[in-house]
Amino acid sequence: MRLPDSFQKLADLLTELPSIGPRQAIRLVFHLIREGQNSVQTLSQRIADLKKIKICERCFFVHQNAGALCDICGNPSRHQDIIAVVEKETDLLSLENTGRYNGRYFILGEIPKSGILEDWQKLRLQGLKNFIEKNLVSNSEPRTSNGIAEEIILGFNLTSVGDFNASLLEKELKPFAKKISRLGRGLPTGGEIEFADDETLGSALERRD
Amino acid sequence: MRLPDSFQKLADLLTELPSIGPRQAIRLVFHLIREGQNSVQTLSQRIADLKKIKICERCFFVHQNAGALCDICGNPSRHQDIIAVVEKETDLLSLENTGRYNGRYFILGEIPKSGILEDWQKLRLQGLKNFIEKNLVSNSEPRTSNGIAEEIILGFNLTSVGDFNASLLEKELKPFAKKISRLGRGLPTGGEIEFADDETLGSALERRD
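Output (structure tokens, whole complex):
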């Protein structure tokens, strides 16, 4: 069954979006048509409005500020020398929503399965190193000639892939931070001992407090 | 964490779409931003292009033809007097994709849980009745003064809700068709007897061939 041209082209485009399959794409287009011309116009405009979004030149998060920095990087009350490196913007959001972190972030982008960074990721990482060297002054003695971060948190998933990526990044970033850390392993809140895997339970035992 | 205005507004709008939750909406917006301005512009334009889509005045399916009828209703080789009433456009697509049907369709829209049709649905149904009375001529004797359809297929789900809706529609449409039918019940292709429910298996037994 051939669908109208405008219909099919939009459905194809929607199918390219993450976690939208061909059937859902078709359902979505029918939904939009049913909603009517005003809704269609509004959605089209809201998507076009994304062009107003800027990317922070320091951490690569989104913002709409007059300057080049996002709300977090531009906030003078946040520690610039404690940096959480994350893969995805949504990882930043999750960490930020805990309300327990007062450093800043650095979005590296999803690391390819090969473990080899894309060229744009290498550029981002080089930018981070340059920033640390030029802008962060170590308070510890003996003063190094170059700047150094207080702490770099490798905010990667605690999966085998995340562990692998963290070990790669740790090597890269070791010279640029006094301390390199990862997120703590243990039982999740509400977690039951009976159903925890050995690895998690072992970590919870070691890190008991 | 406050997201930029343009970001949040689009995420809110996407959340209103069927089967897109707030988290997926946010992931989608980040994805669009990462894809860059050209992709954003293309998607915005493709959505705006939906305004070119028309709704068939006879069956209410989508089309982009010069006239008022969709490809199916406008096809002279399809039986106009065999009409499959379906709730959703996607139900039409599924039936059409079987390649085994040469009648036409009528999209009623999703019937509310109350079983009481919305005003616009009543209008559609009245339009169907008018069309049958004015345009379909019965070949059977004695000729009725009004037209009558050869067959109306109630293409509803074989669920208890679908059964209920079918019984309502059957009452409404009985005077307008020589035969009112529903989709056949039985084992699905590839279905195993061991795992079929009693109702399905009973129907399969009764309708054995």
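Chain B touches chain A through 49 residues (CB under 8 Å).
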